[in-house]
Amino acid sequence: MHFETLALKYIRGNFFIDMHPPLAKLLIALPGYLSRYDGILDLENESEFFESKYPYVTMRLISGILGIFIIPFSYLTIKLSGFSTNAAFLVSALLIFENALVTQSRLILLDSPLMASTAFTMLIWVKFHNEKKRPFKTWWWIWLIMTGVGLGLTVSIKWVGFFTTIFIGLLTIKDLWDLLGDLHLPLIRWVNHFLARVLCLLVIPVILYMLVFAIHFSILENSGDDAISMSPEFRHTLNGHGMNDTPIDVGYGSTITLRHFNTRGGYLHSHNHHYPSGSKQQQVTLYPFKDENNLWIIQKETDPKIPFETINPSWIYHNTLIRLSHVLTEGWLHSHNIKPPVTNSDDQNEVSVYGSKDHSDTNDLWRVEIVDHEKSDSDSGRRLRAIHTKFRLFHINSGCYLYSHSNKLPEWGFKQQEVTCGKGATFINTIWYIETNSHPKLPSDTKMVNYKKLGFFEKFIELNQVMWTNFKSISLHPYLSHPSSWILLKRGIGFWAQEHYQIYLIGNPFIWWTSTLTVLIFVIEKLNTILKAKRGYIDRFSVKGEHVKLWSNVFLMGWCLHYLPFYLMSKELFLQYYFPSLYFAILLIGIGFDLITERFNSRNRTIIVTIFLIASIYIFILFSPLTYGNTWEKSSCDNSKWLSSWDYDCDLYVGSHLTRNTNTTGIEITNQEFSDIRAFDKRAAETEDEQDEQM
Fold first, then answer.
1. Nearest to 583 by CA among 6, 72, 74
2. For the region Disordered, what residue ranges are annotated (predicted)?
3. Cβ of 516: how many Cβ atoms within 10 Å?
């Protein structure tokens, strides 16, 4: 439902932020666009969802087709790498019956496109490698360019696709290093090799990545809920977030809105609600939307009764003392030596609105300290000017600065951002600027100002920065897992559960553990070779042995570079992050098969492949109820928990299969299931009646 919701936003053109690049989500949204779906749908209303013409089946089909592509890609990769047909068939068959890959291919998720693009890139690089003796010929260029296209597609689907870029990059560096050692190759020829790879494997992926974002921006023209996370300049480019030009000159008596610079939480805000503790005075918060409660009037630090809005404005310079009057409630922005209700810290004071139009005290005095300004507007560095001047407000009596951060107030504060007065507070969180400004006595020809409209590159950089912040985020999730658990398939992910059905992401243990064992064997073999070389023992490989060594090194490197970096990450991690590494591990099974069965005849090799295939299919069928969300016997489910860490819920299933019944939805159920459901419905109805009587 998550990515389906994002697809619906594409159809509606509403801006959103996701931690992953847009390509796969654009593919998912494509059926909705082609079907001319009007985008009017309540995704929370299940009956409306299934009765609508929303093309969710086609969206799932896209994921399914891309998942299918992995199979021929893997077959061709092994075959074109110079290994046997049996090995290629074995690898592709294992991928067909890998439960986790089937599960993620059946649903509207990003992992199927990621896997397809990773497998495609690997295949095309193999094709390019096979052309290395014919450099700069037509097919050499085609496969090199297509490798760059594959890299661009992969990283445009998920940022973890960058590991594929590193992988191909290291293989390319090795190729260039080998070419540099070829004394028969002229230096200018080597430079041509280098430039060709830079163009195709660096420039083309970057252009593709940026092109995907250009399409993304062109579709999402309207504002959306996530626009709040972007800068005002970015929001200004979205429909529904435009702002009229505002007078640039700010003086005493000006009615202004103050924006916090760093958190993008919004406007300095107050409303006629009070803190439940502390001073119990009127709340001051940050509010992300335009509202009349965001309006303040700047007054002099002298007599607050003077109506400065009725006389010609005088400007407000650096180090000037001011008072800020809240327009709707007529109180004053105020601070005192009372701890705030949420951030209960000695270096933070509460900020409130206090007093009245005719009453103010020295706790309402703030000093303007200009800290930055628009370089093209020198006046904005000396006095307050709308948008161009960045400044801090220093509270005279308490020695603290008006401050805000990402902390939210509880329900009594309407979940708005907390505003305090901080001593030694983070500098950037104490910076403010004036967004809108009005004064009745400003001349008609006064200079107007607005946000600078961002171009593509500025929007591209800002959105990627926000995405990176979201990508690094750490949050609690019931199915988080550590990379060390992935290779042993210690835990899966519960996708969906209802009544007697569930979908749980778990791999085929036979295939998964075999691939891990294969990786371990190749790692031990590589370490053994290194140790022997260190002791002076140099293995002399045959041509075939060198061939196996080359490709086992390539696929093992692919496994390492798609797996080991996750140990360095502090973000939330899940089992599906291992899928690209699993792909390379299964490719290694094909090499291992040819290596072990090198001296076997064709019949015996076929028997071994058949045994592997039968075992894979048997285990696949065993866990298929979790893959497809089918019915299952509770006893069978319990028996399938080979590891105690597999936490799918067997209590969802009933005890045994008897006569089949069909309910109104057409789903077949057993007599026992039918009885359980009727009993449950009866207990629920009795409980509801009891509650009605109590009410």
1. 74
2. 339-358
3. 18
In whole angstroms, give the CA distance from residue 669 to residue 100.
26
Helix 456-471 vs helix 204-219: angle between axes, to the nearest 10 degrees? 90
How buried is residue 651: exposed, middle or buried, by Cβ count under 10 Å (0-12/13-18/19+)?
A: exposed
Q: Are 23 and 212 in contact (CB under 8 A)?
A: yes
CA distances from 236 to 265, 267, 375, 466, 601 (A): 16, 16, 21, 17, 71
> Do the Cβ atoms of 251 and 311 come closer than 8 Å?
no
Q: Quote the tokens at residue 160.
A: 């973890």
| Stated pTM of the model | 0.83
When the pLDDT of each residue in the chain is averaged and rounded to a whole number, the result is: 88
Tell me 233's DSSP state: H
List alpha helices for 472-542, DSSP H.
483-486, 509-534
Read off the tokens for 250: 């700010």
Structure tokens at 114: 């990621």
Q: State the Cα–Cα distance between residues 179 and 187, nearest whole angstrom.
A: 10
Predicted confidence at residue 537, as pLDDT, reads 77
Task: Look at residue 690 and tell me whether its pLDDT is greater than 60.
Answer: no
CA distance 523 to 402: 58
What residue type is assigned to position 230 of the chain? M
Among 32-36, 210-214, 581-585, 595-599, the range scoring the smallest mean pLDDT is 32-36
Task: Output 681-686 pairs: Cβ under 8 A, ≥24 positions apart.
Answer: none
Name the 3-class secondary structure at 48: helix
pLDDT 10s digits, 230-282: 888 898 899 887 788 999 999 998 999 999 998 876 899 999 999 998 899 99
